[in-house]
Amino acid sequence: MSSSSLPARGTRDFLPDDVRRREYVVRLVRDVYERYGFEPLETPAFENLETLTGKYGEEGNRLIFKILKRGEHEASGAADLALRYDLTVPLARVAAQYQSTLPKFFKRYQIQPVWRADRPARGRFREFYQCDIDALGSTSLVVEAELLAAAAEVLTRLGFADFELRLNHREALTAMLEAVGIPPERHADALVALDKLDKVGIDRVAAELRERGVAAEASDAWMEWLGGLRRDRPDPEGALARLRSLVAGRPAGEAAVAALERVVALSAGGPADGRIRIDPSLARGLSYYTGAIMEAAVPDLAGSLGGGGRYDNLIGMFLGRPIPACGFSLGLERILVVMAERGMFPAAAARGAAEVMVALWDEASAADALALARDLRASGLRVDVYPEPDRPGKQFKYAALRQYDVVLLAGEDERREGTVTIKNMRTGQQVIVPRARAAEAAGAQLTQTGKDVE
After folding, report:
1. What is the layout of strands, in order, in the sheet containing 406-409?
2. Dihedral of the CA atoms 87, 89, 95, 97 (nearest 10)?
3. What is the pLDDT confidence band of residue 51, given thresholds at 50, 70 and 90?
4. Average pLDDT along the chain
5. Is residue 454 part of a domain?
6. Number of structural domains the chain divides into
7. What are phi and psi of 385, to 5 degrees?
8. Can you tell me the mean pLDDT for 430-440?
9. How do strand 430-434 and strand 419-424 relate by DSSP bridges?
10. pTM to 2 decimals?
11. Is 453 contained in some domain?
12. Rounded distance, CA 331 to CA 22, Å?
């Protein structure tokens, strides 16, 4: 295969079956989001570079795809635009731009692609879709509970039975760092290293902490505490108790622990009930988070299916005054990867573009075949027309390859007698019906195969 025919590294082509599976997931996600009162929003694929820079921390800033200035400025190598890195910062810009027209409590969902100059891996691409929900205007922990419930409902309806919702708080992390002796000027470095824990393990994180200037004594104390905590995975109450003990005497940390407990309590009886695990090792690398942070994870995927958190200061960077906000994003690509590997897609997600094929007997019958197809489509059927005359056996073989359920054939005899031959490709049964009843009879054959006819 020529390298010129391959898509750019970290991107993919989506063939028809791929697109149908994606659309199946997106339809379900959209349905759940709208049931929770979130409204649709779309933003441009690229933003002004200054809109994105300085919002994601050192790791994120390096992964922004920059766009060179155009025309006479191209030779300078300077950039003034960039592809979207996520959907949250564009939302913050929109909130600032349209503040006078948006409602006091604005809930939006956005399902669009984003781009990151990351190293491709299983479930990680340079171009990928995010399925975001965000709620603006309220500091209430009801918001966090609703976001977790919506994410849990999506994953449950998709068929995930083993997911968990990891929950932590940025203020709890800050108190934790203080408790183990890491000074404030090293907090950002410590969180960048911690965010890699699931990928590289506790020893490598400890080494990176030392490389970033964190004292060995503080680093070792923190890793020892986290190592013991992570052995408590089946015991979320134990994790909360240990976290509460570690941050005792630090008001912001104690308030954060109380907030985590409140979110768990508010989630009782809902889709997220029993799914939430307090995980003090959860950091999330984006620097704009200010409160609760969360991730959805399954055992057989390194990384997460999605995540989010509270970011009460981000919109203020555009608006000049703080606006409370919280959001959660599901990663479409990672969901699709796991669902495909597990064989989770229902038959409805793989059904083809058409279910009925009209065969073409000879050139003289082309106009009649097209007219027959029009009548079938008018009745709600999805219909393909075989484009050129061929032996019936070859046309039936093609229909079987395309997994069509029904083939209609009108040869010389059928046209003369005003009839149509209908073959059920699942059962092999053939019936001859009057031309006027072709659509009704084809629909009846689809009903026999278990297909819904609109």
Report:
1. 383-385, 356-358, 406-409, 419-424, 430-434
2. -110
3. very high
4. 91
5. no
6. 2
7. -115, 125
8. 95
9. antiparallel
10. 0.87
11. no
12. 12
